[in-house]
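quick one if you have a minute, typing this from the bus. below you get a single protein, a line of residues and a line of whole numbers that encode the local backbone shape. could you go over both lines and see whether the tokens make sense for that sequence. anything you notice is useful, everything is just below.
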Amino acid sequence: MIPHVYLLGTVDTKSDELIYLCSVLEKNGVQPLIVDVSTNMTPASANIEISAQTVAACHPDGATAVFCGDRGRAIAAMSIALEHFLPGRADIAGVIGIGGSGGTAIVAPALQALPIGLPKILISTVASGNIELYVGESDIAMVYPVVDLQGLNRISRVVLANAANAMAGMIRHRYIPPSQSHPALGITMFGVTTPCVTEAMHVLEHDFECLVFHATGSGGKSMERLVAQGVIQGVLDITTTEFCDFVAGGIFPCEVSRLDVIARTKVPYVGSCGGLDMVNFGAIETVPERYRDRVFVQHNPFITLMRTTPAECRQIGRLIGERLNRCDGPVRFFYPEGGFSQLDRPDQPFYDPMADEAFRDVLLATLQQTSDRRFISLPFAINDPSFAQAMAEELIQIFKEN
């Protein structure tokens, strides 16, 4: 089967751009294939290998769900249809999607559903804004076209050609990973827990491949996606700070489903309190008015940290405890008696033992401990080498026993 780069776009409005992308790819010796995701009955064209009707027929409710006459409903339905259509194609070598806000909404979820590592580029007029919803936890590369995608001109030709050439390079020089002999572990990290993660990795790296995830909401989701796919066989959840933003409305929250994948897959799980002393906001002027009397640290010009209160810590303890109770696989939760981050130590601005202990007390009251679900308290701060070593060694022992 000949591998193709799938070109996704609405042919009724983006045919010139799609045909131009084809020409650039063909000059690079790469076979393109246009997939029409228009939400109306686009007339057949010799340039379109896969019609909008073909894609729309993949919707669970059939093509009529897409061609309904209502633009908003049609876009949502075509997105669902494309998400069902695309992953089943055996000849995909890479994907380029193009679009404005509507086309991006159609294409992005389908790209997110594709395997990590498969080349995917999304050329979108919304790429200079908040792209979290479009990228999700995938490895989509977004390109801002500068001008609107409305015909070809001296700007759009350059941007589209660069994207096509980049795709051709990824196809022709595809990375082939070596065979893996060690199981992969997911580890969560923040800057304020880096010493702990670094020390734990030193203990683990001889027997495991350590995949570190930045605990910024999307990091936790990315890690759990790879757990669900079977790529990651164990989790060292050192930095559970995403729960703080979930509770207090920060900018890096986890989703309500955080830890559900751990429960479903029963992978070995060792967690801790990294960053539970802080909520993340943007620049100081973006902090909600109701929080203005709290303790803050300016992490950088774009990130402001706010210390969690005992009440918030109690809520976080309950959430984590309830989620861990759903986990029937091996679970250990380590409590660092000396503090939750580099900022939660004596003489540091977030040092607040009462708040930390409020978390501990509620977690202990909530957690249903068993022989395989245990709470472990140690007389160290989270970044003390002895604490990191204890967590890593416990995870190694779990793997030996299972």
